[in-house]
Amino acid sequence: MYNYAQLDKYGHVIGISQLAGVVENESLVSLETEDFTLFGKVYDRDTGEFLTPPDGFYKAIRVNGAWTEGLTPEEIAELTNVLVPESVEQKAQRLESENANLREQLAETNANVETLTNALIELGVI
């Protein structure tokens, strides 16, 4: 059997596989044994070592031998954007505001209908 560490596009170990034959694939690194302690480590293609990424990164990657963030600011914002539920007071204020806006829109629509109706009456259409 042949053991492999499966890597994501950043070199993070995301799986350990035992295959029946030799496989040549950029996302697989040959291992001597099935080593599940490699999960979460980062494979350095330059040195052939599995490195433990430092704390403080969402997706630590190695660039020119230095650790850096692998996620874009947008991806980090998406991960950290936790919705806080509205309080009863906040919800009541939001609904009152939405209701006021709807009343204004309805009044405007009614005025437009009245204007159009009067125009149609003057033209003798209705």
Global morphology: elongated
Helix content: 25-40%
| Alpha-carbon Rg, integer | 31 Å
Number of domains: 2
Low-confidence stretches: none
Q: Distance between termini?
A: 88 Å
How many beta-strand elements? 7
What does it look like?
- With 126 residues, this protein is α+β, with helices and mostly antiparallel strands.
- The chain folds into two domains: 2-80, no CATH class; 84-126.
- Helix content is 34%, strand content 25%.
- It is built from two helices and seven strands; from the N terminus they run E-E-E-E-E-E-E-H-H.
- It has a three-stranded antiparallel sheet, with no helix packed on it. It has a two-stranded antiparallel sheet with strand order 4-5. The protein has a two-stranded antiparallel ribbon with strand order 6-7.
- A hairpin with a 2-residue loop joins strand 6 and strand 7 (66-69).
- The longest helix has 35 residues, at 88-122.
- The radius of gyration is 31 Å and the shape is elongated.
- The chain starts with a strand and ends with a helix.
Keywords:
single chain; 126 residues; alpha+beta; 3-stranded antiparallel sheet; 2 helices
Q: Topology of this structure?
A:
Elements: E1 2-7, E2 13-19, E3 28-31, E4 42-44, E5 49-51, E6 60-63, E7 66-69, H1 73-80, H2 88-122
Antiparallel strand pairs: 1-2, 1-3, 4-5, 6-7
